[in-house]
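Last lecture ended with a question: if I hand you only a sequence, what can you say about the shape of the protein? Today we answer it with a concrete record. The protein is LGI3 protein. Below, first the input exactly as provided, then the predicted structure, then a couple of comments.
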Amino acid sequence: DFVVHQVLPFQSVSAEPFTYASDLYIALAQPGASSCAILKWDYVERKLRDFDRIPAHSAVHCKPIVAQDQLYVVVAQLFGGSYIYRWDTAVDKFIKIQDIDSQKTRKPNDIEAFQIEGDWYFVIADSSKAGSTSLYRLNQNGFYSHQALHAWHRDTDVEYVENDGKPRLIISSSSQAPVIYQWNRGQKQFTPQGEVGEMLDVQMVKHFKVKRDQFLCLSRYIGDSKVVRWEGQRFIELQTLPSRGSMVMQPFLVEQRQYLALGSDFSFTHVYLWEEEKQKFVKFQELSVQAPRAFRYVPAADVQLLLAPSFKANTLVYRHVVVDLSL
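The predicted structure:
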């Protein structure tokens, strides 16, 4: 069961857990409060507490990256440009270290960070008609523009997937089916590899793995969302889920249980549980979250949390509990 563990009295649109100096933190983008809130997990009280705030006029995503013992936060804003901050241990605060090219990134929507062959990268999906989804690479002095991907398509989401040792990006957009890019080791760049089926107007792409099989969850705001099995160049459709008003569809694993949270702006959030024999998700629980924009599973020592940022109401923190029905 998922039960409410803590109510955070603010609206937010993204939640990103990270571990830094052995402590657990969460970065939340709060466009209404014009900030990126950094919360710290209190292991004694078992609660999230305020730690710091980064000013962010219209934040849509705050992405923490811990690389070479340094903590960076990429702050993507709808207006006024996007920036990168670094935690300065000498003064114990976040220092702005660089701007992100506003000609390339005009209307950011999502950020993914990952490592390939020891190098750190992040990619920003850009939802403006005139912008392009851009890849940045970390060197000694900061993050530098590495590659422009998929220009002029109003991209909504980007997902990093490693399959059979091959790094890939899947980019969803308002104007075409999600596209797949595969990493070329020789060129040290991503090259186009194909599309995901016939699915148009996909809001978000997320992946999960069961044993050796890779699956994709494709969420849509209008129409049905889908779960497909990825078989090399082919995608086998397994399940469609009604999802009117859905901005987020997030698979997550709690111990051996594979869940899927499907949010909605018009009704309850539905949590599904994966049944291996049927190769599909079955309804598990309804959660009352207003206008959810992300779901993020966070293991915090002996407590398993599910964060649910809300665009219109309080951000909710659920706890995963085992209910004894034998009594």
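Comments.
1. The chain has a mean pLDDT of 91.
2. The chain has one domain: 2-320.
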